[in-house]
């Protein structure tokens, strides 16, 4: 029963908190120095935080997406004893054990060591961890497939920080290697053989560095055409098993790549919008169009219904908070007798100003969630629906936030939070 309670706590936590909770859950069975998670790559579920970690800082601070991706590929290409595996993590070769879920997500335990409880039946311990990981990976998939505004607010700054770090690292190494090449190619150097060898090594290092950067970028971005193709797959059940005619207007095949969380949010918003449209009586056709102007993902969804949809419609209210969390715009235009049209614009670049640290105001976790939604522009009804609480409870939390933050109005509260 304790194990089930602990598992329930893990699957109910937000994706960034999963690693710490799951690490604590597994510790009584398999000791480990670090727990590392790589969620589905851009052929499946890519987000602003595809890597989730817990454990020793010397490992989790330096491990890269490319290293974890190499472990995932090795699980299928190089079958071996789960207790005899090794991998490079954070630039250091170390023992590991690893599992992949049916979603494609990877779990890695660094420096694994069976505890007395786990050592009683090692094979059963492996099987138990595998089943637990399957449940946790499925919960991550479900949360990422329909990201909450709070999750989007967290993932966008993370993506920007990570992209800047990669760019700075690449530039630093490139400058160093280019300087090395310049010295070694100098005519004043007499050791021709040594110069040639060092030149070849440095040139190879530059190629490898670029390859790592390109591979890391591919794990965090998704071509707009590929993202749209996955959207068609998501909506296929509505076409196959219902009477709905879904028409797709595809984006240009050579359109720019989308950040992972923008592609995810776009698909989640379209799914929610289509369901909101088909809940109306008389809707038999929906037209979905994606495009990208280089700065924004542009979405248009139109139906052939009675034209009575509005921003206050039950199926539409939750969508406005998700769009606002990404700094986007959302509009509804309904024409009686001609149908309703939803328009969405999602910026590709993350917001420049993250929320202020909640610790400055002594906020509880629930108050932090409410504050994030208030700052995103969500109203009380949308916040209640997102957090599964009553509107009266939302009003209570907002009143406490106004008092703790020292704001006199809701608008001032949102402004101070940013």
UniProtKB/TrEMBL annotation:
Residues 356-418 form the HTH luxR-type domain. GO terms for molecular function: DNA binding. Keywords: DNA-binding, Transcription, Transcription regulation. InterPro entries: HATPase_C_sf, Sig_transdc_resp-reg_C-effctor, Tscrpt_reg_LuxR_C, WH-like_DNA-bd_sf. SMART domains: HTH_LUXR (SM00421). The keyword Transcription regulation applies. GO terms for biological process: regulation of DNA-templated transcription. This is Helix-turn-helix transcriptional regulator.
């Amino acid at each position: 029963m304790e194990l089930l309670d602990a598992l329930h706590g893990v699957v109910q936590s937000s994706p960034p908190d999963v690693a710490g909770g799951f690490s604590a859950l597994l510790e009584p069975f398999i000791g480990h120095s670090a727990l590392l998670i790589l969620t589905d790559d851009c052929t499946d579920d890519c987000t602003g935080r595809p890597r989730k970690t817990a454990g020793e800082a010397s490992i989790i601070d330096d491990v890269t997406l490319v290293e974890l991706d190499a472990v995932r590929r090795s699980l299928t290409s190089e079958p071996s004893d789960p207790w005899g595996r090794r991998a490079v993590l954070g630039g250091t070769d170390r023992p590991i054990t690893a599992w992949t879920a049916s979603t494609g997500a990877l779990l890695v335990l660094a420096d694994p060591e069976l505890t007395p409880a786990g050592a009683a039946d090692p094979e059963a311990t492996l099987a138990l961890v595998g089943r637990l990981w399957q449940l946790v990976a499925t919960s991550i998939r479900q949360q990422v497939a329909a990201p909450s505004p709070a999750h989007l607010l967290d993932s966008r700054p993370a993506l920007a920080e990570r992209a800047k770090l990669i760019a700075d690292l690449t530039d630093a190494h490139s400058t160093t290697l280019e300087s090395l090449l310049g010295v070694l190619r100098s005519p004043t150097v007499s050791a021709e053989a040594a110069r040639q060898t060092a030149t070849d090594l440095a040139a190879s290092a530059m190629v490898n560095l670029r390859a790592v950067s390109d591979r890391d970028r591919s794990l965090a971005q998704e071509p707009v055409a590929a993202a749209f193709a996955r959207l068609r797959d998501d909506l296929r059940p509505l076409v196959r098993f219902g009477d709905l005619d879904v028409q797709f207007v595809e984006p240009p095949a050579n359109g720019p790549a989308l950040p992972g969380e923008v592609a995810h949010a776009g698909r989640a918003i379209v799914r929610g919008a289509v369901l909101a449209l088909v809940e109306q009586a008389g809707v038999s056709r929906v037209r979905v169009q994606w495009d990208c102007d280089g700065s924004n993902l542009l979405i248009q969804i139109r139906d052939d219904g009675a034209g009575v949809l509005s921003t206050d419609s039950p199926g539409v209210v939750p969508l406005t908070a998700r769009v606002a969390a990404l700094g986007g715009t959302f509009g509804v235009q309904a024409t009686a007798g001609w149908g309703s049209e939803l328009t969405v614009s999602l910026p590709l670049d993350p917001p420049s100003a993250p929320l202020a640290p909640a610790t400055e105001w002594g906020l509880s976790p629930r108050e932090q969630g409410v504050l994030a939604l208030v700052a995103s522009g969500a109203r009380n009804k949308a916040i209640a629906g997102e957090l599964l609480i009553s509107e009266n409870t939302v009003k209570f939390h907002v009143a406490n936030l106004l008092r703790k933050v020292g704001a006199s109005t809701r608008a001032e509260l949102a402004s101070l939070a940013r």
